[in-house]
């Protein structure tokens, strides 16, 4: 397989290196006779290897090169069709594709109305501020169709972003203006990280990152004597530089461990009573639960030991080490991407409150610190370029991870954040910049859900499984093939993203596709405001320039910015944000919770009367209990070698695979009795489906746990099977499609239970990257 460019893209001379940005880091690149050459940003102390996916991806056969229409849709017109996901595609001209799509959008808009269009289009897309696909599709649907049913929250933090406003206040402030990496380096004395702060994760930030500082900050803290304690089934969730103690816990048991830590503090009189009295509400109520006064079961270390797999003595010793020191409690996003995921987030706050360090530099609650590069940093003091999405004429929405429920159950009632809501009847789904066959759970169910639509439209740069389910597939450029501005609200460098290569085949920018489509619907002017892409960049640049001028800083005009290597933006002070202000004066700077305090008991949540999320943190029992059929717990976490499913066909991602399959980590003593050796292909399965994966053996994983990252492109051997086998290793054939709780309805993709068996006999080929027939 030759993944190098097939067409000459330079005039024989190598182009100069030009700056560009991606979610996984700033870089510069140039086209040479041998293809794309990429180099990391010179100011980046710890560049991310994921940029090496670009060269092989640019002209890969997996790119979509011309508009395509699914044969069944072309021949029979819109309507439910079980062939979605296994049909043929017919290449058509842009003219024809846009004529058919424009007519279909008008049919829906003027018939069932914009409330029958789902345009949530969740996904990370690419880093530029203008060609941000989700902003583009929303703007298009608002201007040309009168709106769309949207989605709220994210797959990242579905449970925590709903819970936190009730109990702690501003979610954005908690994650983006709280304890910084500089504070960890300078002040923390002990960091207890549930789910860790894996460097693979903080290598990524939406919009781009110029300096990967996390490794250095943790190393500085450790050198100063800060202790790190990792609670996770995987040792790699904290870098070696921390010298961390590893407490290898049973997945989804963290809430019990936190309770036992707090129980120990209380039993030994080590909890900060003054802090609890001054800054929290509901402690008494919770204490009765904690001590067992309420239900007869003290949540002590002896109780937690069998639930967590951590010895009672270890738990008690850890509680004593935490007390009276500048302690930072970190809870990763992963813990809440599970059934009952609200509990560890809430209980983490209670543990931090009992230690009394919230609002002090380097102490308290660093929720999700390290999960993404834009946490633990300072915010820019000038606005980043932002494309307006216009006004959505449809009020209806769903919690983002409830998409299959919505499509399968129009008119069905569901609970969300204290409301009883009803799923709308969606006829058309429009997706640009996301990959639901990457991000959603129970993919067989998702296929059945998409089969019920009249029309599925997808803009894609590659033949993802989502594109293969679409009726109309429109080829879009990848970031390297267009101009944009790279910026992120907490990275100090804003860069011109220069075009590095011409578009592949007939690919076009999302913006140009929407402009022509809007033209067919009488809305071109409203959508484009008469601007070309370059004119938009110039326009979007202005608020940042004005901000610089207001701050009395050099404010280069667009032409100067565009020709340069990027401009430094001023940043807000590292002031600890709202939690610090609250600590200093809880009357003057109350939290935005109903009581103005940290709510250990929430009257609001108690009033919702949800059994799976009562009025204070509780131990709901273990939702992922291995049994005879599925004796292993599977961790489906973020991949090291790519962002989600993006550029899975690139060289860096491909190099991590084993026999072409996604690697799965397993303990050697779990593998031996099953006859599984290093590099073997195994079959992971449960009631929903199965997938193949290539085994990597390691003692750095807890026994009884198997880890398989997300992001291998879904490649079902038989797409029509009720319980499909993905031959490539996508764990979302196995995960369960159920909300975190009736409170938040967040994604629960992180964990499930599986059987593991060696795959013997012939290996089915991976066809995920071959364009469809
Ligand atoms: N089991 C399990 N599942 C999970 C998770 C988990 O932990 N476990 N994590 C979840 C999380 S946190 C997240 S955020 C989601 C991520 O889910 P997604 O954000 O949907 O995943 P991506 O692979 O980033 O999808 C982006 C898609 O946009 C395309 N794209 C890139 N640039 C452009 C562009 O300019 N225009 C257009 N039209 N398309 C473009 C890419 O090719 C890619 O297919 O996954 C979730 N799913
Ligand atoms: N390289 C790379 N980086 C990424 C992404 C990517 O796709 N690739 N995605 C980005 C996105 S969108 C997001 S939202 C963040 C996600 O950030 P997270 O959700 O925090 O990341 P994960 O890697 O899914 O999980 C982190 C670790 O939690 C551990 N873990 C899982 N379950 C449990 C549990 O029950 N208890 C404990 N104690 N530990 C557990 C796992 O060992 C796992 O490695 O990552 C971001 N960073
Ligand atoms: Mo995410």
Automatic annotation (TrEMBL):
It comes from Mangrovicoccus algicola. The keyword Metal-binding applies. Residues 632-746 form the Molybdopterin dinucleotide-binding domain. Its cofactor is Mo-bis(molybdopterin guanine dinucleotide). InterPro entries: Asp_de-COase-like_dom_sf (IPR009010), CT_DMSOR/BSOR/TMAOR (IPR041954), Molybdopterin_N (IPR041460), MoPterin_dinucl-bd_dom (IPR006657), Mopterin_OxRdtase (IPR006656), Prok_Mopterin_Oxidored (IPR050612). The keyword Metal-binding applies. Residues 1-22 are annotated as: Disordered. This is Molybdopterin-dependent oxidoreductase. Belongs to the prokaryotic molybdopterin-containing oxidoreductase family. GO terms for cellular component: outer membrane-bounded periplasmic space. Pfam families: Molybdopterin, Molybdopterin_N, Molydop_binding.
